[in-house]
């Protein structure tokens, strides 16, 4: 799915990613072993820009997902955030996040993107629950979700496979936000 308008907080903008946004820089993020170490794409990265553009196009065609590019104020694309597996009946969805440009790690952009997408999900889509999962060692993502107001719901042991074994990764993190009115009020003060 796509929307025609941009979501922003004055520091970053999110807009639905287009195949024309795909280039060598984006492809290199997905091939960078430091960037992709906690992403499922590390197992089978796109072969070329055309394959990656087809992925963006296919995601946009889905009726249960939004793929937003994260852009800083100068227009630089630094990553993506996906709102997917949207269940309108159960009013919930999952979030997935990538800050691909390592130069922009640790600057709060992930937290901002999570907050913006959560506000969109709770106000425009009328969802009541968002979840996200991550590898236990991915403390950057863990902190970003906590700073965005998410609550650590639990741990799923032996959930991720890494280096040909389930035990080496061991744990996944789950987050949810069950109080959309309070959460949206937080945004109004933001």
Write up this protein.
The protein has 190 residues and is α+β, with helices and mostly antiparallel strands. Helices cover 29% and strands 28% of the residues. The protein contains five helices and eight strands; from the N terminus they run ββααβββαβαββα. Strands 1-2-3-4-5-6-8-7 form an eight-stranded mixed beta sheet, with helices on both faces. A hairpin with a 3-residue loop joins β1 and β2. The radius of gyration is 16 Å and the shape is globular. It starts with 6 loop residues before the first strand and ends with a helix.
Primary descriptors:
alpha+beta; 28% strand; eight-stranded mixed beta sheet; disordered C terminus; Aminopeptidase; 190 residues; single chain
In CATH, what is the homologous superfamily?
Gcn5-related N-acetyltransferase (GNAT)
Our estimate of the beta-strand percent is: 25-35%
- By CATH, the topology is Aminopeptidase
Provide the structure class: alpha+beta
- Gyration radius (Cα, Å) is 16 Å
Low-confidence region ranges: 165-190
Q: How would you write the strand order of the largest sheet?
A: 1-2-3-4-5-6-8-7
Number of strands: 8
Please report the number of helical segments.
Answer: 5
CATH class: Alpha Beta
CATH architecture grouping: 3-Layer(aba) Sandwich
**Percent helix among the residues?**
25-40%
User: Can you write the helix and strand succession as a string?
Assistant: EEHHEEEHEHEEH
